[in-house]
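pasting for ref
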Amino acid sequence: MVSKQKMQNYEHILTNIRKSKTIGVVDFHKLPAAQAQSIRYGLHNIAKIHLCGKKIIIKALNNISKEKENIEKLFIKKQDEKDEVKIPGVIYSDIGPFELFKKIQKQKSVLFARAGDIAQDDIIIPKGDTNLPPGPAISDLKNLKIKSAIKGQKITILEDKLLIKKGDTIDAKSAEMLMKLSIKPMKIVLNLKKCYNDNIIYDKAILSINIDEYKNKINDICKNSFNLAYNIDYPVSIILKFKITEASQQAKNLAVEANIINKDTIEFLLQKAHLQNTMLNSQIQN
């Protein structure tokens, strides 16, 4: 028999899917409770987040697929490793999927590293003073090949040190030293796996595209394409429009230079004659 709590969760999901423009699947895996609560609060004006089981999500999406085309593809039972959702939840919003992704990214937190974590970026110990007092820390730094010296009552790092490369596993000694130095190298954010909006599924690879940068690239491509087509006289409507204007101006200039009289050149020829007359009178008077 289905429990009352599961039925309430199911009805809650259905209700929010029906009334929301954008629906996403999120993964709470490795997201500490404090950060999860902070993210929920940070997004509460634009989105609702509901933590629930995989079966309930799949059932709700399949049930509502007649009302929202393709939405059942948002979360499928058999997933690739890259798409796997270990602790699933659903996020609902009325803003677009790209804007929602950007808003979530702004809720990013930083944490101390733990032994076994994978470095998300190069972890560098910066040159400068620390709050570490002289003592065992000197040996710990030396073991990690971090050059240091005692300056007054504190330890100073003498030069920048690449401690862990991006993608490498953080060992226990490095994690302990990072904590002592108050360095928090681990960035954590709610993992938005996919979004549904207007019958289209957007995966994380698409959502993470920098829209402004993408627009600038498209603009550059358009400009370069136009310049190339213009320079090789490529006969398409947008190029022909400018080429005809250019040819017309060149023909008018040539006609004026050759003193050919017509309705397009008469005004310029009169101005030319007037200027020449003025210059001639000036020379005679001198």
